[in-house]
Fold:
Amino acid sequence: MVNLESRYKDLISCYKARRYDDLKTKAIQFTSDFPDHYDGWILLGVCYRILKENSKSIKIYQDLIDRFPQISAAYTNIANIFLDLGELDESIKFYKKSIEIRNNDSNPFDGLGLAYTGKGDLEKACECFKKAVEINPNFDRAHLNLGDNYRKRTMYKEAIKHYEVTNYKLSKSHKLECHYHLNEKGYFFEQLKELANDKNLNSLAACLSVHASHRFDVENTYPFCVDPLNFVYNESLFSEEGFDNDFINDFLIYIENNKPDFMSQNLLKKGLQSAGNLFLRDDKIINKLKNIINKKIEDYKERYSDSKQGIINKWPQNYNLYGWIIEIEKEGNLSAHIHKEGWISGSIYFNLPNNKETDEGKLKVGLHGANYPNDNKIFEEKVLPITTGDIVIFPSSLFHETIPFKKEEKRISFAFDLMPS
Structure:
Protein backbone atom coordinates (compact mmCIF):
# COMPACT_ATOMS: atom_id res chain seq x y z
CA MET A 1 0.00 0.00 0.00
CA VAL A 2 2.84 2.37 0.81
CA ASN A 3 4.38 1.59 -2.57
CA LEU A 4 1.05 2.36 -4.29
CA GLU A 5 0.64 5.71 -2.53
CA SER A 6 4.20 6.87 -3.16
CA ARG A 7 4.06 5.88 -6.82
CA TYR A 8 0.72 7.63 -7.33
CA LYS A 9 2.14 10.78 -5.72
CA ASP A 10 5.04 10.50 -8.17
CA LEU A 11 2.55 10.47 -11.05
CA ILE A 12 0.92 13.62 -9.69
CA SER A 13 4.34 15.28 -9.41
CA CYS A 14 5.13 14.44 -13.05
CA TYR A 15 1.80 15.91 -14.12
CA LYS A 16 2.24 19.13 -12.14
CA ALA A 17 5.80 19.50 -13.49
CA ARG A 18 4.51 18.89 -17.07
CA ARG A 19 6.91 15.96 -17.51
CA TYR A 20 4.42 14.21 -19.72
CA ASP A 21 6.76 11.67 -21.31
CA ASP A 22 7.84 10.54 -17.82
CA LEU A 23 4.21 10.51 -16.73
CA LYS A 24 3.25 8.32 -19.67
CA THR A 25 5.97 5.75 -18.95
CA LYS A 26 5.29 5.63 -15.23
CA ALA A 27 1.48 5.64 -15.58
CA ILE A 28 1.57 2.70 -18.01
CA GLN A 29 3.58 0.69 -15.50
CA PHE A 30 1.44 1.89 -12.59
CA THR A 31 -1.85 0.84 -14.22
CA SER A 32 -0.28 -2.52 -15.11
CA ASP A 33 0.67 -3.09 -11.48
CA PHE A 34 -2.59 -1.65 -10.06
CA PRO A 35 -5.23 -2.29 -12.75
CA ASP A 36 -8.18 -1.27 -10.51
CA HIS A 37 -6.74 2.11 -9.51
CA TYR A 38 -9.28 4.46 -11.11
CA ASP A 39 -7.32 7.69 -10.69
CA GLY A 40 -4.17 6.11 -12.11
CA TRP A 41 -6.07 5.33 -15.32
CA ILE A 42 -7.55 8.85 -15.36
CA LEU A 43 -4.04 10.34 -15.21
CA LEU A 44 -2.85 8.10 -18.04
CA GLY A 45 -5.84 9.17 -20.12
CA VAL A 46 -5.15 12.84 -19.42
CA CYS A 47 -1.52 12.30 -20.41
CA TYR A 48 -2.50 10.69 -23.72
CA ARG A 49 -4.81 13.64 -24.44
CA ILE A 50 -2.02 16.15 -23.77
CA LEU A 51 0.31 14.17 -26.04
CA LYS A 52 -2.43 14.16 -28.71
CA GLU A 53 -2.88 10.38 -28.58
CA ASN A 54 -6.63 10.79 -28.36
CA SER A 55 -7.66 7.32 -29.51
CA LYS A 56 -5.74 5.76 -26.60
CA SER A 57 -7.26 8.24 -24.19
CA ILE A 58 -10.80 7.52 -25.42
CA LYS A 59 -10.23 3.77 -25.06
CA ILE A 60 -9.15 4.21 -21.43
CA TYR A 61 -12.20 6.31 -20.54
CA GLN A 62 -14.62 3.98 -22.32
CA ASP A 63 -13.17 1.06 -20.37
CA LEU A 64 -13.48 2.98 -17.08
CA ILE A 65 -17.11 3.83 -17.89
CA ASP A 66 -17.83 0.14 -18.49
CA ARG A 67 -16.09 -0.93 -15.27
CA PHE A 68 -17.07 1.96 -13.00
CA PRO A 69 -20.31 3.40 -14.46
CA GLN A 70 -21.20 5.41 -11.35
CA ILE A 71 -17.99 7.45 -11.16
CA SER A 72 -18.24 10.72 -13.10
CA ALA A 73 -14.60 11.57 -13.92
CA ALA A 74 -14.29 9.36 -17.01
CA TYR A 75 -17.48 10.83 -18.49
CA THR A 76 -16.14 14.37 -18.10
CA ASN A 77 -12.74 13.48 -19.53
CA ILE A 78 -14.08 11.67 -22.59
CA ALA A 79 -16.46 14.60 -23.18
CA ASN A 80 -13.46 16.96 -23.12
CA ILE A 81 -11.81 14.96 -25.92
CA PHE A 82 -14.94 14.89 -28.06
CA LEU A 83 -15.18 18.67 -27.57
CA ASP A 84 -11.57 19.03 -28.75
CA LEU A 85 -12.35 16.92 -31.80
CA GLY A 86 -15.47 18.93 -32.61
CA GLU A 87 -17.86 16.03 -31.97
CA LEU A 88 -20.30 18.28 -30.15
CA ASP A 89 -23.26 15.92 -29.78
CA GLU A 90 -21.05 13.23 -28.26
CA SER A 91 -19.48 15.70 -25.86
CA ILE A 92 -22.92 16.93 -24.73
CA LYS A 93 -24.07 13.36 -24.10
CA PHE A 94 -21.11 12.56 -21.84
CA TYR A 95 -21.13 15.91 -19.99
CA LYS A 96 -24.81 15.39 -19.17
CA LYS A 97 -24.11 11.88 -17.89
CA SER A 98 -21.31 13.19 -15.68
CA ILE A 99 -23.64 15.85 -14.24
CA GLU A 100 -26.35 13.25 -13.69
CA ILE A 101 -23.92 11.25 -11.54
CA ARG A 102 -22.41 14.25 -9.73
CA ASN A 103 -24.10 17.63 -9.99
CA ASN A 104 -21.71 19.60 -7.77
CA ASP A 105 -18.67 19.48 -10.06
CA SER A 106 -18.08 22.75 -11.95
CA ASN A 107 -15.97 21.23 -14.75
CA PRO A 108 -18.67 19.36 -16.72
CA PHE A 109 -20.97 22.40 -16.52
CA ASP A 110 -18.21 24.56 -18.02
CA GLY A 111 -17.51 22.01 -20.76
CA LEU A 112 -21.21 21.63 -21.51
CA GLY A 113 -21.43 25.40 -21.87
CA LEU A 114 -18.63 25.33 -24.47
CA ALA A 115 -20.39 22.54 -26.37
CA TYR A 116 -23.66 24.51 -26.43
CA THR A 117 -21.69 27.55 -27.58
CA GLY A 118 -20.42 25.47 -30.49
CA LYS A 119 -24.01 24.52 -31.30
CA GLY A 120 -25.01 28.19 -31.24
CA ASP A 121 -27.26 27.94 -28.19
CA LEU A 122 -25.87 30.86 -26.16
CA GLU A 123 -28.77 30.87 -23.71
CA LYS A 124 -28.19 27.27 -22.64
CA ALA A 125 -24.46 27.90 -22.60
CA CYS A 126 -24.93 30.88 -20.29
CA GLU A 127 -26.90 28.80 -17.79
CA CYS A 128 -24.13 26.19 -17.74
CA PHE A 129 -21.38 28.77 -17.16
CA LYS A 130 -23.41 30.44 -14.42
CA LYS A 131 -23.84 27.07 -12.72
CA ALA A 132 -20.09 26.45 -12.96
CA VAL A 133 -19.21 29.72 -11.21
CA GLU A 134 -21.99 29.18 -8.68
CA ILE A 135 -20.40 25.86 -7.70
CA ASN A 136 -16.87 27.28 -7.79
CA PRO A 137 -16.72 31.10 -7.57
CA ASN A 138 -12.94 30.95 -8.12
CA PHE A 139 -13.17 29.02 -11.42
CA ASP A 140 -11.17 31.32 -13.72
CA ARG A 141 -11.95 29.55 -16.98
CA ALA A 142 -15.69 29.56 -16.32
CA HIS A 143 -15.62 33.30 -15.54
CA LEU A 144 -13.84 33.88 -18.85
CA ASN A 145 -16.38 31.74 -20.71
CA LEU A 146 -19.31 33.49 -19.04
CA GLY A 147 -17.77 36.86 -19.91
CA ASP A 148 -17.37 35.71 -23.51
CA ASN A 149 -20.99 34.59 -23.58
CA TYR A 150 -22.24 38.01 -22.44
CA ARG A 151 -19.86 39.78 -24.84
CA LYS A 152 -21.12 37.76 -27.81
CA ARG A 153 -24.63 38.92 -26.90
CA THR A 154 -23.40 42.55 -26.67
CA MET A 155 -24.02 42.59 -22.90
CA TYR A 156 -20.70 44.35 -22.38
CA LYS A 157 -21.18 45.59 -18.82
CA GLU A 158 -22.13 42.10 -17.64
CA ALA A 159 -19.15 40.66 -19.49
CA ILE A 160 -16.76 43.12 -17.81
CA LYS A 161 -17.84 41.94 -14.34
CA HIS A 162 -16.57 38.44 -15.10
CA TYR A 163 -13.43 39.51 -16.96
CA GLU A 164 -12.46 41.60 -13.94
CA VAL A 165 -12.22 38.60 -11.60
CA THR A 166 -9.83 36.51 -13.71
CA ASN A 167 -6.52 36.77 -15.53
CA TYR A 168 -7.25 33.61 -17.52
CA LYS A 169 -6.13 33.72 -21.15
CA LEU A 170 -7.49 36.82 -22.97
CA SER A 171 -9.76 38.07 -20.18
CA LYS A 172 -8.04 41.47 -19.92
CA SER A 173 -8.00 42.01 -23.69
CA HIS A 174 -11.66 41.04 -23.95
CA LYS A 175 -12.41 43.51 -21.17
CA LEU A 176 -10.52 46.11 -23.23
CA GLU A 177 -12.72 45.27 -26.22
CA CYS A 178 -15.86 45.74 -24.13
CA HIS A 179 -14.71 49.21 -23.05
CA TYR A 180 -14.05 50.01 -26.71
CA HIS A 181 -17.57 48.98 -27.73
CA LEU A 182 -18.94 51.10 -24.88
CA ASN A 183 -16.92 54.12 -26.08
CA GLU A 184 -15.20 54.38 -22.70
CA LYS A 185 -12.13 56.04 -24.15
CA GLY A 186 -10.39 56.82 -20.86
CA TYR A 187 -10.65 53.28 -19.51
CA PHE A 188 -9.66 51.92 -22.90
CA PHE A 189 -6.36 53.77 -23.28
CA GLU A 190 -5.45 53.29 -19.63
CA GLN A 191 -5.81 49.51 -19.93
CA LEU A 192 -4.23 49.38 -23.39
CA LYS A 193 -1.11 50.98 -21.90
CA GLU A 194 -0.98 48.27 -19.23
CA LEU A 195 -1.35 45.52 -21.81
CA ALA A 196 1.36 47.05 -24.02
CA ASN A 197 3.80 46.57 -21.13
CA ASP A 198 2.85 42.93 -20.63
CA LYS A 199 5.43 40.45 -21.91
CA ASN A 200 2.65 38.23 -23.32
CA LEU A 201 1.31 39.95 -26.43
CA ASN A 202 -1.92 38.92 -28.13
CA SER A 203 -3.67 39.64 -31.39
CA LEU A 204 -6.88 41.03 -29.88
CA ALA A 205 -5.13 43.86 -28.03
CA ALA A 206 -3.03 44.44 -31.17
CA CYS A 207 -6.13 44.72 -33.36
CA LEU A 208 -7.81 47.15 -30.95
CA SER A 209 -4.67 49.28 -30.80
CA VAL A 210 -4.42 49.50 -34.59
CA HIS A 211 -8.10 50.34 -34.88
CA ALA A 212 -8.00 52.99 -32.14
CA SER A 213 -4.87 54.61 -33.57
CA HIS A 214 -6.67 55.18 -36.90
CA ARG A 215 -9.96 56.14 -35.32
CA PHE A 216 -8.47 58.70 -32.92
CA ASP A 217 -5.38 59.70 -34.96
CA VAL A 218 -2.98 58.67 -32.19
CA GLU A 219 0.23 56.66 -32.17
CA ASN A 220 -0.09 52.88 -32.04
CA THR A 221 2.04 51.88 -29.06
CA TYR A 222 1.12 48.19 -28.79
CA PRO A 223 4.28 46.33 -29.88
CA PHE A 224 2.79 43.44 -31.86
CA CYS A 225 2.25 44.54 -35.45
CA VAL A 226 1.53 48.21 -36.12
CA ASP A 227 1.12 47.75 -39.90
CA PRO A 228 -0.47 44.30 -40.37
CA LEU A 229 -1.38 44.90 -44.03
CA ASN A 230 2.34 44.81 -44.79
CA PHE A 231 2.64 41.32 -43.29
CA VAL A 232 0.31 39.49 -45.67
CA TYR A 233 1.87 36.51 -47.49
CA ASN A 234 0.10 35.01 -50.52
CA GLU A 235 1.45 32.47 -53.00
CA SER A 236 0.56 29.29 -54.85
CA LEU A 237 1.33 25.94 -53.21
CA PHE A 238 1.66 24.09 -56.52
CA SER A 239 5.43 24.53 -56.35
CA GLU A 240 5.51 22.62 -53.03
CA GLU A 241 6.41 18.94 -53.11
CA GLY A 242 3.31 16.81 -52.64
CA PHE A 243 0.81 19.59 -53.31
CA ASP A 244 -0.92 19.13 -56.67
CA ASN A 245 -4.38 18.59 -58.09
CA ASP A 246 -4.35 14.97 -56.94
CA PHE A 247 -3.73 16.09 -53.36
CA ILE A 248 -6.55 18.64 -53.61
CA ASN A 249 -8.93 15.95 -54.89
CA ASP A 250 -7.81 13.48 -52.21
CA PHE A 251 -8.35 16.08 -49.50
CA LEU A 252 -11.83 16.99 -50.73
CA ILE A 253 -12.78 13.30 -50.89
CA TYR A 254 -11.39 12.77 -47.39
CA ILE A 255 -13.48 15.64 -45.99
CA GLU A 256 -16.59 14.38 -47.78
CA ASN A 257 -16.11 10.83 -46.47
CA ASN A 258 -15.13 11.92 -42.95
CA LYS A 259 -17.56 14.75 -42.43
CA PRO A 260 -16.74 16.63 -39.22
CA ASP A 261 -19.46 18.11 -37.05
CA PHE A 262 -20.23 21.66 -38.06
CA MET A 263 -20.60 24.42 -35.51
CA SER A 264 -22.74 27.52 -35.33
CA GLN A 265 -20.91 30.54 -36.74
CA ASN A 266 -22.89 33.78 -36.60
CA LEU A 267 -20.42 35.52 -38.93
CA LEU A 268 -21.00 32.94 -41.66
CA LYS A 269 -23.85 33.36 -44.15
CA LYS A 270 -24.84 30.35 -46.29
CA GLY A 271 -21.88 28.35 -45.13
CA LEU A 272 -20.55 25.80 -42.66
CA GLN A 273 -17.52 25.71 -40.35
CA SER A 274 -16.19 22.47 -38.90
CA ALA A 275 -16.06 22.20 -35.12
CA GLY A 276 -12.96 21.30 -33.15
CA ASN A 277 -9.36 21.02 -34.30
CA LEU A 278 -8.86 18.85 -37.39
CA PHE A 279 -5.12 18.64 -36.62
CA LEU A 280 -6.04 16.34 -33.72
CA ARG A 281 -7.07 13.68 -36.22
CA ASP A 282 -4.35 11.12 -36.77
CA ASP A 283 -4.90 10.73 -40.51
CA LYS A 284 -2.30 10.53 -43.27
CA ILE A 285 -3.76 13.33 -45.36
CA ILE A 286 -4.18 15.67 -42.35
CA ASN A 287 -0.57 15.00 -41.33
CA LYS A 288 0.60 15.75 -44.87
CA LEU A 289 -1.32 19.03 -44.86
CA LYS A 290 0.16 19.89 -41.46
CA ASN A 291 3.69 19.35 -42.78
CA ILE A 292 3.01 21.68 -45.72
CA ILE A 293 1.62 24.35 -43.41
CA ASN A 294 4.55 24.06 -40.99
CA LYS A 295 6.96 24.61 -43.87
CA LYS A 296 5.08 27.69 -45.07
CA ILE A 297 4.99 29.08 -41.53
CA GLU A 298 8.80 28.86 -41.47
CA ASP A 299 8.89 30.57 -44.89
CA TYR A 300 6.67 33.33 -43.51
CA LYS A 301 8.88 33.85 -40.49
CA GLU A 302 12.00 33.97 -42.69
CA ARG A 303 10.41 36.42 -45.14
CA TYR A 304 9.89 38.98 -42.38
CA SER A 305 12.95 38.07 -40.32
CA ASP A 306 14.39 41.61 -40.53
CA SER A 307 11.32 43.08 -38.83
CA LYS A 308 11.69 44.56 -35.35
CA GLN A 309 7.98 44.17 -34.61
CA GLY A 310 6.76 41.82 -31.91
CA ILE A 311 5.04 39.45 -34.31
CA ILE A 312 8.52 38.35 -35.41
CA ASN A 313 10.97 39.21 -32.63
CA LYS A 314 8.65 37.83 -29.93
CA TRP A 315 7.62 34.77 -31.94
CA PRO A 316 6.30 32.13 -29.49
CA GLN A 317 8.79 29.38 -28.69
CA ASN A 318 5.99 26.87 -28.10
CA TYR A 319 2.78 26.77 -30.07
CA ASN A 320 0.00 24.56 -31.35
CA LEU A 321 -1.74 24.51 -34.71
CA TYR A 322 -5.52 24.67 -34.88
CA GLY A 323 -7.28 23.92 -38.16
CA TRP A 324 -10.81 23.80 -39.54
CA ILE A 325 -12.80 23.64 -42.78
CA ILE A 326 -15.03 26.43 -44.12
CA GLU A 327 -17.53 25.68 -46.90
CA ILE A 328 -19.50 28.59 -48.40
CA GLU A 329 -22.38 28.31 -50.87
CA LYS A 330 -23.50 30.67 -53.62
CA GLU A 331 -24.21 34.21 -52.29
CA GLY A 332 -22.67 33.31 -48.95
CA ASN A 333 -19.82 35.03 -47.16
CA LEU A 334 -17.84 35.24 -43.92
CA SER A 335 -17.97 38.68 -42.27
CA ALA A 336 -14.89 40.63 -41.16
CA HIS A 337 -13.26 39.14 -38.06
CA ILE A 338 -9.92 38.35 -36.46
CA HIS A 339 -8.60 35.21 -34.74
CA LYS A 340 -8.18 36.42 -31.20
CA GLU A 341 -6.19 33.47 -29.82
CA GLY A 342 -3.87 33.17 -32.82
CA TRP A 343 -0.45 34.67 -33.48
CA ILE A 344 -0.58 34.22 -37.22
CA SER A 345 -3.50 32.87 -39.23
CA GLY A 346 -3.92 31.50 -42.70
CA SER A 347 -6.02 29.71 -45.27
CA ILE A 348 -5.44 27.20 -48.04
CA TYR A 349 -7.94 27.33 -50.89
CA PHE A 350 -9.08 23.92 -52.12
CA ASN A 351 -11.84 25.21 -54.33
CA LEU A 352 -12.72 28.74 -55.39
CA PRO A 353 -15.57 29.73 -57.72
CA ASN A 354 -14.08 30.23 -61.15
CA ASN A 355 -14.58 33.94 -61.71
CA LYS A 356 -11.36 35.70 -62.69
CA GLU A 357 -12.99 38.89 -63.95
CA THR A 358 -14.41 40.07 -60.60
CA ASP A 359 -13.51 39.98 -56.91
CA GLU A 360 -16.32 37.54 -56.13
CA GLY A 361 -15.20 34.80 -53.75
CA LYS A 362 -11.91 36.56 -53.01
CA LEU A 363 -10.42 37.37 -49.60
CA LYS A 364 -10.51 40.94 -48.30
CA VAL A 365 -8.17 42.03 -45.50
CA GLY A 366 -8.38 45.34 -43.67
CA LEU A 367 -8.23 47.36 -40.47
CA HIS A 368 -11.93 47.54 -39.61
CA GLY A 369 -14.54 44.99 -38.58
CA ALA A 370 -16.42 43.39 -35.66
CA ASN A 371 -18.84 46.35 -35.54
CA TYR A 372 -16.20 48.47 -33.82
CA PRO A 373 -17.20 52.15 -33.58
CA ASN A 374 -15.45 54.01 -36.40
CA ASP A 375 -16.52 57.67 -36.13
CA ASN A 376 -17.04 57.61 -39.92
CA LYS A 377 -13.30 57.22 -40.52
CA ILE A 378 -12.02 55.38 -43.60
CA PHE A 379 -9.97 52.29 -42.78
CA GLU A 380 -7.52 50.77 -45.23
CA GLU A 381 -8.34 47.43 -46.87
CA LYS A 382 -7.35 45.38 -49.90
CA VAL A 383 -8.59 42.37 -51.87
CA LEU A 384 -6.21 39.46 -52.42
CA PRO A 385 -6.31 37.85 -55.91
CA ILE A 386 -6.40 34.29 -54.58
CA THR A 387 -6.92 31.23 -56.76
CA THR A 388 -7.40 27.53 -56.04
CA GLY A 389 -4.19 26.09 -54.57
CA ASP A 390 -3.11 29.34 -52.91
CA ILE A 391 -2.07 29.84 -49.31
CA VAL A 392 -2.46 33.13 -47.44
CA ILE A 393 -0.78 33.85 -44.09
CA PHE A 394 -1.23 37.06 -42.11
CA PRO A 395 -1.14 38.42 -38.52
CA SER A 396 -4.06 37.10 -36.48
CA SER A 397 -4.80 40.73 -35.55
CA LEU A 398 -5.80 41.58 -39.15
CA PHE A 399 -9.48 41.69 -40.08
CA HIS A 400 -10.40 39.45 -42.99
CA GLU A 401 -13.61 38.53 -44.76
CA THR A 402 -14.85 36.79 -47.88
CA ILE A 403 -16.60 38.49 -50.79
CA PRO A 404 -19.96 36.93 -51.82
CA PHE A 405 -20.13 35.17 -55.18
CA LYS A 406 -22.83 34.15 -57.67
CA LYS A 407 -21.34 30.97 -59.14
CA GLU A 408 -23.05 27.63 -58.41
CA GLU A 409 -19.92 26.30 -56.74
CA LYS A 410 -18.70 25.74 -53.22
CA ARG A 411 -15.90 27.87 -51.86
CA ILE A 412 -13.86 25.42 -49.75
CA SER A 413 -10.91 26.48 -47.64
CA PHE A 414 -8.86 25.10 -44.78
CA ALA A 415 -8.19 27.79 -42.15
CA PHE A 416 -5.53 27.56 -39.46
CA ASP A 417 -4.07 29.42 -36.52
CA LEU A 418 -0.64 29.25 -34.93
CA MET A 419 -1.56 29.60 -31.26
CA PRO A 420 1.01 30.25 -28.49
CA SER A 421 0.94 27.53 -25.83
Strands lie at 233-236, 262-263, 268-274, 319-334, 344-351, 363-366, 381-384, 390-395, 399-402, 411-420.
